[in-house]
Design brief:
Layout: H1 4-15, H2 23-30, E1 34-38, E2 43-45, E3 53-59, E4 62-68, E5 71-78, E6 83-84, H3 87-92, E7 98-102, E8 106-112, H4 113-122, H5 124-150, H6 153-163, H7 173-180, H8 184-195
Antiparallel strand pairs: 1-8, 2-7, 3-6, 3-8, 4-5, 4-7
Length: 196
């Protein structure tokens, strides 16, 4: 099993592509992160819980979804080198409506809300790094919303192929369909049409 030091090195290497950071500052920042390993189909948290942590994904794939009248509606997929949380819950420290569960075995680094605020105050440059990672999530979410307003299901699927093709081999069909707002049967029809 890969250890905490390798996970922290992974995060550090990514951070250094965005910001400058001394070894001394990094050692202090790293001390606030805890590594957790989850198997496939485990939950980070469920609806009604408050998201106490934000996670950096070293490896694996995770899905955020809502449950509406017994139907799962996928909001987001997060993978390696991305941050993950139920962001509204994390930022407001109030219960979430989301469920967050693993689609693959996952290796994560977690940091608490309180510790992250401390790091932001002590090392503002770290806030710049996290902001840039979160901006990617915001852009992805906004493009998805725009797709529901302005595009057909087929166009949304093609957009996903163009923006995040690596996900298509990793996500079960039923979850991909709920992300696109269609049934698995409709998604199969679209995939068949596009492949011809």
């Amino acid at each position: 099993m890969i250890g905490r030091s390798a996970s922290l090195e992974h995060l550090k290497n990514l951070a250094l592509t965005y910001i400058s950071l001394s070894d001394e500052h990094w050692e202090d920042i790293a001390s606030y992160f805890k590594e957790i390993n989850l198997g496939k189909n485990e939950y980070l948290f469920r609806e009604g819980q408050t998201s106490q942590h934000i996670y950096f994904i070293c490896s694996g794939l995770i899905r955020n979804y809502y449950l509406q009248n017994g139907v799962e509606i996928t909001r987001h997929f997060a993978q390696e080198n991305e941050l993950l949380s139920a962001y509204v819950s994390f930022l407001t420290q109030t219960p979430t409506l989301e469920n967050v569960h693993t689609l693959e075995d996952c290796r994560l680094l977690q940091i608490s809300y309180h510790d992250l605020q401390h790091i932001y105050n002590t090392y503002p440059v770290w806030g710049n790094f996290f902001r840039q990672l979160l901006e990617k999530v915001y852009i992805e979410t906004t493009k998805r919303i725009e797709g529901f307003i302005c595009k057909t299901a087929e166009q949304r699927y093609i957009d996903l192929i163009n923006r995040r093709p690596e996900l298509l081999q990793r996500i079960p069909l039923q979850y991909l369909a709920t992300y696109l707002g269609i049934t698995p049967v409709s998604l199969s029809r679209i995939r068949k049409k596009i492949s011809h």
